[in-house]
Amino acid sequence: ILNVEQSPQSLHVQEGDSTNFTCSFPSSNFYALHWYRWETAKSPEALFVMTLNGDEKKKGRISATLNTKEGYSYLYIKGSQPEDSATYLCASYGGSQGNLIFGKGTKLSVKP
Amino acid sequence: DADVTQTPRNRITKTGKRIMLECSQTKGHDRMYWYRQDPGLGLRLIYYSFDVKDINKGEISDGYSVSRQAQAKFSLSLESAIPNQTALYFCATSFDSQETQYFGPGTRLLVL
């Protein structure tokens, strides 16, 4: 089974800090890399779907990069706000498996 | 109205009971998924369906069964519930395997 790893497991930052976390995945047979944002008591919501090596995507203060050759993706949050507090999940589509494999997530807490 | 709905939202049951969790979607997607979430373990795939006639086991299918009654409906059954099936269950849909998955609100199940 394809293994998707995320680090760190949790992160505490102050409001206004910029932060980033990592998702690593097997680079062989890569198809797509997904990032989701999951707030407490809600369901996961998609942030980005990335497919091309070198891809960069941005949504407001959140951006992500993708390196398919070395098997990692970074998620960046610029000027963190308390409302950014959530668990950020990445998932890689394993091609022949026909489904997404999720990492365990990075839980971000932003203190006012 | 929500595009992906799950019923019930919360359920308490006893060991050995049969229960069914239901998922409906109005997005017109062929692909539907059932995941469970346990603290510290992230989202794990139970079953997935590419269309009404195509159902596949996921990572942790033992103790579960599914039924795809129509394109819009995908039900998860626990034939004989056991306490370690206590978890948060999510249904999700997607247009195809590489596309964004849209999650339902989740069903919180407690097996006593």
Query: Span from first to last CA of chain A?
Result: 40 Å
Strand content range of chain A: over 45%
Distance between the termini of chain B: 33 Å
Task: Look at the helices and sheets of chain B and give the structural class.
Answer: mainly beta
Helix count of chain B equals 0
- The beta-strand count of chain A equals 11
Helix and strand succession of chain A? EEEEEEEEEEE
Q: What is the H-and-E element order of chain B?
A: EEEEEEEEEEE
Helix segment count of chain A?
Answer: 0
Main β sheet profile of chain B? 7 strands, mixed
What is the mean predicted local confidence, pLDDT of chain A? 92
Q: Unreliable segments of chain A (pLDDT under 50, ≥5 consecutive)?
A: none
Mean pLDDT of chain B: 94
Largest interface (CB within 8 Å) is between: A-B, 23 and 24 residues
What does this structure look like?
The complex is a heterodimer of chains A (112) and B (112). Chain A is mainly beta and 112 residues long. Chain A is built from no helices and eleven strands. In chain A, a hairpin with a 4-residue loop joins strand 7 and strand 8. With 112 residues, chain B is mainly beta. In chain B, strand 5 and strand 6 form a beta hairpin. The N and C termini of chain B lie far apart (33 Å). At the A-B interface, strand 4, strand 5, strand 9 and strand 10 of A face strand 5 and strand 10 of B.
